[in-house]
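Renewal narrative, Specific Aim 1. Our central claim is that a sequence can be written position by position from structural information alone. The example that follows is taken directly from our test logs and has not been curated for this report. It begins with the structure tokens describing the chain, in the order in which they were read.
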């Protein structure tokens, strides 16, 4: 019985992911979950109290996996500056995933502070890796620099919304150039391609 319930719960979470990918926040409803899984609507309530509960369960299941993907990407790089680049690009790649965007938006709208705190905990390990890399680059205040780096990433995510893949690539290159040049200083040279992308992004923002 316990195994059956776990399978049903997994099926419901998979259905929730599919709905978010296909239709965003508006698509995630209990009738839609029931239709996708062949369950009665009343049965869905046996697993989740509300849509916020569905979102919380998705966050607790998926956020650590996403964080692990970024951590693995960082670990595969040599050098502190290269790890910082992997951190920036990894987050921007996730931000391009419609399901990820929808879950982030829903978590901000529907989860209470305790639930959001548990989600933030999944991100703390990544922040620690960023602080370590910045320390290796000689920053006197790596925690502050890490917070500023996250601000660069979040600004790039907002600017990427609704853009074409080519435009998102330019923005990602510009974010990397800004992060490495502004946070790592002379310790990290900016490539010609990244510098060009930064200039293009700056020019488009003034248009």
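The sequence written for that structure reads:
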């Amino acid at each position: 019985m316990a195994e059956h319930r776990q399978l049903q719960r997994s099926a419901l979470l998979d259905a929730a992911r599919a709905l978010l990918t296909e239709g965003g926040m508006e698509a995630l409803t209990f009738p839609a979950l029931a239709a996708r899984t062949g369950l009665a609507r009343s049965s869905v309530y046996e697993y989740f109290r509300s849509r916020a509960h569905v979102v919380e369960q998705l966050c607790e299941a998926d956020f650590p996996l996403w964080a692990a993907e970024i951590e693995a990407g960082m670990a595969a790089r040599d050098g502190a500056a290269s790890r910082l680049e992997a951190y920036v690009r990894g987050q921007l790649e996730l931000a391009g995933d419609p399901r990820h965007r929808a879950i982030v938006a829903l978590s901000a709208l529907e989860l209470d502070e305790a639930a959001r705190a548990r989600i933030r905990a999944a991100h703390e390990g990544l922040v620690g890796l960023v602080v370590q890399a910045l320390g290796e680059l000689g920053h006197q205040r790596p925690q502050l620099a890490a917070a500023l780096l996250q601000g660069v990433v979040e600004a790039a995510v907002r600017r990427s919304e609704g853009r074409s893949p080519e435009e998102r690539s330019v923005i990602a290159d510009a974010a990397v150039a800004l992060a490495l040049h502004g946070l790592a200083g002379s310790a990290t040279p900016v490539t010609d391609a990244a510098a060009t992308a930064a200039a293009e992004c700056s020019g488009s923002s003034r248009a």
